[in-house]
Amino acid sequence: MKAKHRILAAGMAAAMTLSLAACGGSASTAEPTASSAVETVTPEATSEAASGDVTEVTWWTYFGDKNIGYLQNIIDDFNNSRNQYHVTIVYQGNQMECNAKLQSTEKENLPAMFSGAVEDVAMYANSDFCVPLQKYVDADTEGWQELDDTWDALRSAYSDGQGNLIGYPIGYSYPNIFYNADLLKKAGVDPASIQSFDDLYDASKTIVDGGFATYGIGFFANGAMFNVALGREGVQAYNNENGLNGQPVTECLYDSDTTVHDSIYNMLSIYQKMGAEKLCVPYGADYQSEIIPQMASGDCAMMMGVISMTTKVLDAAAGNFEVGVIPMPSASESGKRTGEPAAGTGTYVCDNGNEKAMQGAYEFIKFASTGEQAGYFASATGYIAPNQEAYDSAAYKTYREETFPGISVVYDSLAKSDSSATNPYVAISNEMRDANKVAMETAATDPTADINTVITTAKDSIQEALDIYLSLIHTPSPRDRTRSR
Fold first, then answer.
1. Under a CB-based contact definition with an 8 Å cutoff, are residues 447 and 437 in contact?
2. Rg of the chain over all Cα atoms, to the nearest angstrom
3. CA 452 to CA 434: how far, in whole Å?
């Protein structure tokens, strides 16, 4: 059965990669600019011959060359402080390509560790190539203080429905809206008032109609943004409590649950209105080459994206205006707005059969989470400090006080958050993201599109992928049960 899972997942991932390429989109919310200039190689080509008792720990990643450079500093510190392990990081293409390779590679050729998106946690937990971190946490007699001090919203996002840790965040990328604080002030828009998509529409209309900017906002065109808006809303769009009550997701509720439908309908309607009224940068624009430059010039007031884009936004602003951050708005005005949607990249132990290398992967993950290392990486990249030690580190303290004071809004929100924002714990996350992206793109670019039809199309696409997956693991879906009566 595991072999079937791997074949299915590899096929789905490959199809997803092609569809994203056709749309010109990026699959990764954690590292949207992963550089294709970094050579993709196999662990056999990079693995240094282990001498004595040194165990080689290979790490597959989709981080781009710049972030790999920062990670290499952490790796060097780890390698120099340990005499039994040697970590080597290897770029394996973008997020979808890396996932596909993990799913199609024979066990003995897998790495000991890999990077993976938080929205893919369920896929990893249900795969045969990932070993949940909880196994190592339970056997760890030394303890892991940084794990105990990890923000609850982050830790739960990397766990299964029973609280078992699957991976650990190394690049937590908080979904948010960046804004030109000077421009919003001139327009009379209070950024704190933007808590829902309705508020976002109103603010953008005020800005554009008042002549303060050509566009109110630009959107990072990624299907994950669909889920984070619902998460902020506190809506669970799949049955079995988004797959977190111990039972797998078997049904997408986009058009069958009134609360879910109404939230999605409102959000997609706002996308449609903003596109039709030219209040936003045309949907699908590249965030790095088009939207950020327009923010820098004053042509665009805001950008919906993820916090890992901070350094690019600050560099583009070049001190010409104050950059602020707004937590992700909810899909509608009825949203709870008390949960913190998760985004970004974690590190996971990969089952390659080499227990020493896998233990080394766990030891590295712990090392990278320490205040000094995690604080350094967060301050260098713009990611969120994943735990209290990283937040309190000297490097991150300097960053939040001198480089980006606006980041304090994120931590204030995290401190007040609850567990209502749950990522769908679903193994077909690739197909889910793709269907969601198509829905947002259709609504934003076609003023005549029927929103109910858009919702049903997305649901049907997701349900079809669910049905295929469930048929392979012998769990009947609602449709299967209906047909068998």
1. no
2. 22
3. 18
- The pLDDT of residue 474: 62
Identify the pLDDT of residue 427.
86
* Non-local CB neighbours of 1 within 8 Å, separated by 6+ positions: 472, 473, 474
CA distance 237 to 454: 16
pLDDT tens digit sequence for 278-299: 999 999 999 999 999 999 999 9
Q: What is the pLDDT of residue 6?
A: 40
- Asked if 173 and 29 count as a contact pair (C-beta separation under 8 A), the reply is yes
Alpha carbons 364 and 87: distance in angstroms, whole number = 8
Residues of the chain with pLDDT under 70: 1-52, 474-485
How many other C-beta atoms lie within 10 A of the C-beta of residue 166? 26
How big is the chain, counted in residues? 485
Q: What is the pLDDT of residues 252-266, one digit of tens each?
A: 999 999 999 999 999
pLDDT of the residue at 192: 94
Short-list 32, 88, 87, CA closest to 64: 32
Contact 200, 329 (CB under 8 A): yes
Cα dist from 468 to 101, 170, 457, 460, 473, whole Å: 21, 32, 17, 12, 9
* Parallel/antiparallel/unpaired status of strands 300-306 and 215-219: parallel
What is this structure's pTM? 0.80
Closest-CA residue to 29 (of 314, 423, 334, 301): 423
SS3 labels along the chain: CHHHHHHHHHHHHHHHHHHHHHHCCCCCCCCCCCCCCCCCCCHHHHCCCCCCCCEEEEEEECCCHHHHHHHHHHHHHHHHHCCCEEEEEEECCCHHHHHHHHHHCCHHHCCCEEEEEHHHHHHHHCCCCEECHHHHHHHCCCCCHHHHCECHHHHHHCECCCCCECCEEEEECCEEEEEEHHHHHHHCCCHHHCCEHHHHHHHHHHHHHCCCCCEEEEECCCCHHHHHHHHHHCCCCEHHHHHCCCCCCCCECCCCCHHHHHHHHHHHHHHHHHHHCCCECCCCCCHHHHHHHHHHHCCEEEEEEEHHHHHHHHHHHCCCCCEEEEECCECCCCCCCCECCCCEEEEEEECCCCHHHHHHHHHHHHHHCCHHHHHHHHHHHCCECCEHHHHHCHHHHHHHHHHCHHHHHHHHHHHCCECCCCCCCCCCHHHHHHHHHHHHHHHHHCCCCCHHHHHHHHHHHHHHHHHHHHHHCCCCCHHHHHHHC
